Amino acid sequence: MRFLFPLYICFWFSGFGQQIEHRLILFGDAGEMNKQQDNLITEASKFALPGKTSVFFLGDNIYPSGMGITDDEAQESSAILRSQYTAFRQVGLPVTFIAGNHDWDKSGPNGLEKLKLQADFINGQHDAALRFIPEAGIPGPYIESVSDKITVILYDSEYWLFPYHDNLDSALNGKVRVQFLDSIATGVGDTEDKTVLILSHHPMRSFGEHAVRFSWKDHIFPLTRKWKNFYLPLPVLGSVYPVLRSTVFKSPEDLSHPTYKNLIRDISTAVENHKNVIFVSGHDHGLQYIVDKNFRQIVSGSGSKTSFIHSGKTLKYKYNKQGFCILDCLDNASLNVSFYIFKDDKILKSFEDVIKHE
Questions:
Q1: Contact criterion met (CB below 8 Å) for 15 and 352
Q2: Residue 345 CA to chain centroid, in angstroms?
Q3: Domain named Calcineurin-like phosphoesterase: which ranges (predicted)?
C-alpha cells in the first residue's frame, strides 16, 4: 500500500506486473458543477486505455433533487449531466449512470417521475455508449462481464429505501424483492471463478456521515455543515442535531435505519458463498477503502461534495475531499484499486492496493 506519490499512467500493465484487461473509472455523487468536479473529470478522462476502459457514475447525478420538471429546471439538470459524461465520451469511453437517492427527488414524492426524466434525457442522446442502468424504476440487477475474469452487477439501491412507492409493502417485501435477491445470488453463483463487483449508490459499510457518525467540529461549529467557513461556536446547541438524527429523526438513507439494515442483510446473504465480491458505492462524500477479512467496500462518493469521515480498524484508507477511484481488472482475476485526488493543483495517486483473487 502506498500513499501520495507522483502520478504515472500505466497503459497496459499495472505496477505489479500483471496485464490490465479492463479499467473502471468510478465517480460517485458528482451531480453538482464546481471547479474541482470539472478538474477531476477532465483529468480522469486522461486515464483511458483504448478499448479497455469504462466509466461508472454511482448515483446522485443531479443535485439537489434530481432531474428538473419545469423547462428551466430541466435545462440546468441537463447541463449537470453533460458536465459529467462529455469529457469521457469525447475520448471514446462508455459511460454508465446508476441512480442515487437525490436522483429520486431526494427520496421525495416525485422520485419516480424525476428518475424517468433523467433516464429519458440520457437515452435521448441516442448514444449506445451512454447508458442509464437499471431502467428507471426497476431495481435490477443488471449483470455484465467487463473481462473474462470480472463480472459487474449493478442495482438501484434507492429503490429499496424509497418511501413513496404506489404499493410500498408490495414493492419492498413482495415478489419483486424475492426475484431481485434470487437474481443476485444466481449472478454471483454463476461466476465462482471470477471476481464480482457489485455497484450501487448505497454502501454496505461506511465511516462517513450516513453511518451517523459526527466529528467534534459538528458539535462545536454546527453551522459549518451548511456554510463551510462559518465557525460560530455553539457547543451545546451543536449537539442537538447529531443526537436527534440518531434517535428521533432517523432516515432510511442512514445505515442504522431498519430499512437500510434489512437491505444490507439481504444482499450479504445473497452473496455470502462467494469469496471474491467487492462492493463499490458512493453516498458518503469522500473516499474510503474498507477491508474486513473477505469483505471489501470501496466508497467513491466525492465527485462534487465532501464530508467528514471517521477512523476505524477496518478502514484502510480515507480522504474527505474530492477525488475518484480507478479499478484495474488484471489478467489473473485480481484487482488493482487506486484512489486519485487533487493536491497542490496536481492530480496524485494517494493510495493503491491489490485485491487478490482467492
A1: yes
A2: 25
A3: 23-213
Q: What is the pLDDT of residue 249?
A: 60
Instruction: Give the position of cell 461466476.
Output: 191
d(CA 331, CA 283): 30
Closest C-alpha among 11, 29, 1 to residue 320:
29
Query: Whose CA is closest to 157, among 181, 130, 139?
Result: 139
Q: What domains sit in the chain, N to C, each tagged with a CATH number? A: 2-212+254-355 (3.60.21.10)
pLDDT of residue 189: 86
Pairing mode, if any, of strands 95-97 and 53-57? parallel
- What is the three-class DSSP state of 326? strand
Rounded to an integer, what distance in angstroms lies between the CA atom of residue 38 and that of residue 283? 19
Other beta carbons less than 10 A from residue 249's beta carbon = 10
Rounded distance, CA 101 to CA 352, Å? 29
Residue 160: all three cell numbers together: 429499496
Tens digits of per-residue pLDDT, 174-230? 889 999 999 999 999 888 788 999 999 999 999 998 877 766 677 676 656 556 666
In this predicted model, what pLDDT tens digit does every residue of 225-250 receive, in sequence order? 556 666 767 665 666 666 656 655 67
Structure confidence by residue, pLDDT tens digits, 248-279: 567 899 999 999 999 999 999 999 989 899 99
Return the beta strands (E) in 6-97 as ranges: 20-27, 53-57, 95-97
Report yes or no: 347 and 7 within 8 Å, Cβ to Cβ.
yes
Residue 247's identity, in one-letter code, is T
Evaluate if pTM is beyond 0.85.
Answer: yes
Cβ atoms 24, 151 nearer than 8 A: no
Q: What one-character DSSP code corresponds to residue 64?
A: T
Q: Identify the bridge partners of residue 54 per DSSP, sorted by sequence position.
A: 24
Cell of 255: 445505515
Q: For cell 489478467, what's the residue?
A: 331
